[in-house]
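Known limitations

Structure tokens in this collection are predictions and should be treated as such. Users comparing against experimental data should check residue numbering before alignment. To illustrate the layout, the record for Oxidoreductase is reproduced below. The input appears on top and the generated tokens appear beneath it.
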Amino acid sequence: MSLAAHLRFPKVPLSNGLQIPILGLGTSHYGGFSHDAIVYALTECGVRHIDTAKRYGCEEKLGKAIIESEIPRNDLWVTNKLWPGDYGYKAAKKACLDSCSQMRLHYFDLYLMHWPESLQSCTCSNREMRAETWRALEELYKEGVCRAIGVSNFQVHHLEELKEDCSVVPHVNQVEYHPFQQSNQLMGYCRREGIVFEGYSPLAKGQVLRNPTVLQIAEKYGHTPAQICIRWSIQNGVVTIPKSTKKKRIRENCQVFGFQLEESDMAALGSLHDGRHVTWDSTHVE
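Generated tokens:
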């Protein structure tokens, strides 16, 4: 039976008035894309939020899957990311427009700087390059090519500098977030500044699924460990984008709105933070 007919994902308001679905489907490189899985997520599971990046190498294929789904463009939230090799004013504008062309889209709902450090050979500092690149994103935003703009993997000091150097505060900061990596200081800063906090790798690449506390809570609620971790993230108000190329897993990951974790269980999961990263760690980037 299709979930799409009755499942409506809650949305989180951005500072510019747009609303982003709190649950989305992530993609990635190295086998992190499946055409059939994307179409299934959109048509059978009610997913309306898709996250990708130029880095993942699946823009053209993802665009085809979106077209095949026949979901109206206005009903979708599509996020893409600018790779650090395309930083700089002119390169950033070109890369965004090229990505739109690759996906056969007229605009992105959200466009992010993927990383706080540039891969361009440049005599300028990272801060200067971030500011120059962000100026391009601000223009794309004003032109309507990007309905919202943001950053990914930015720490507090990166956001503070960007706020000083530019005119539009990022609408979103997307970072690694799961029970082992909670970034509560960064989350608090984002919320004070009106920046929506979005989390990727909510299952810590599967590591959290074997944790005894998670397993115990999953048994208590009669849900899978993955559902417990995604529910915990969403219940913390975090926009969450689990990745999967398996239809069964995608369906499972979407069934997280029919129950609520008790405060004691939220606290137990919150106590699992040990600071580990399962992806990139940007705390060292100046």
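For this record: The radius of gyration is 18 Å. The first strand starts at residue 11 and ends at 13. Please report discrepancies through the issue tracker.
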